[in-house]
């Protein structure tokens, strides 16, 4: 809704009026406004009007004037409340346009036509600033469209004189109240990357306090900003800043996890290496047993008895059982080696993350600012272009 204090002046020409009184040298005659007028008055209809209240002090601020050329003018001082459809998705970069249509409710375009006067259709007080007015948080401008609009309602097409009200916000106040503090909170969260991971209270207090401050700011701004069907522009910014701080906190959790299991994995490293050595020895033993069990003929002359005596079936039973056992465990040994290699890889990753030789904080100290700068550039370019497109429509 838009509330305005206006002096609405309506001119029309009625040739049926005969001026019998002598006007002397004056161009017009002041008449008294009465509820039951003896002359015809147009039925001015404002489509977007929600409420209108005539201003009054000792009496209502109304004036009726009759000119020599059979032209009459009614002037009324009133407080007007206009309803407009607004979209706040781009808030606070949004530009709102509200069209106010003046027409007749009963008479169609065949009977009555509305248009703005040739002399300045809009006049403003000297402190208004021309055709625009700058408020603490808004810039409001008014423009009377010269072309006549035709709107269909009731029983036909109606002539309409349109006033266009354009409202934009002062972005500076939002920059200092919302964007700058949230940016500083994100920059403060980067300070946790230069704090030693072992200083858990200091680093946790910094990150958690920053995160809670951003959540509180987001809740306050959301409650004090107009509603929209989608995420507003400033909400996208605050949610993104909150996620940057949350990811910094998540990065510290990963570092703490590495520190916690650093000594554990270092202690298990000799056992893992010993296990890998044993598995290697077992594989060599298996290969040797299979090699020994393969009997090659010594020469080309041998009988069936020699062949039977040299075959594996006639070897020592204990040796034969060892061969079968090792052969049966062949796939299990390969699977065990894969698991141990994965454990070694996990060990090195955790040592990289948690030990003082790890580089995750150093990488984050460079990666987080770079990502935030890229996000900021993308954010402002996309939303400023959308704001200009909506203003040009």
Total beta strand runs: 11
CATH class of the largest domain, please? Mainly Alpha
The best one-word shape is elongated
Model regions low in confidence, pLDDT < 50 over at least 5 residues: 289-315
User: Per CATH, what is the topology of the largest domain?
Assistant: Methane Monooxygenase Hydroxylase, Chain G, domain 1
The overall pLDDT, averaged over residues, is 78
Helix content: 40-55%
Quick one: CATH superfamily of the largest domain?
Neurotransmitter-gated ion-channel transmembrane domain
**How would you classify the helix and strand content by structural class?**
alpha+beta
Tally of helical runs: 7
Major beta sheet summary: 6 strands, antiparallel
Count of discrete structural domains: 3
Q: What order do the helices and strands follow?
A: EEEEEEEEEEEHHHHHHH
* Rg measurement, Å: 44 Å
First CA to last CA: what distance? 21 Å
Architecture overview:
Keywords: Cell membrane, Ion channel, Ion transport, Membrane, Signal, Transmembrane, Transmembrane helix, Transport. This protein has 393 residues and is of the alpha+beta class. The protein folds into 3 domains: 83 residues, Acetylcholine Binding Protein, Chain: A (Distorted Sandwich); 84 residues, Neurotransmitter-gated ion-channel ligand-binding domain (Acetylcholine Binding Protein, Chain: A); 181 residues, Methane Monooxygenase Hydroxylase, Chain G, domain 1 (Up-down Bundle), CATH 1.20.58. It has 7 helices and 11 strands. The strands form 2 sheets. Strands 3, 7, 8, 9, 10 and 11 form a 6-stranded antiparallel sheet that branches. Strands 1, 2, 4, 5 and 6 form a 5-stranded antiparallel sheet that branches. A hairpin with a 3-residue loop joins strand 5 and strand 6. Helix 1 packs antiparallel against helix 2. The longest helix is centred in the C-terminal third of the chain and has 61 residues. The radius of gyration is 44 Å and the shape is elongated.
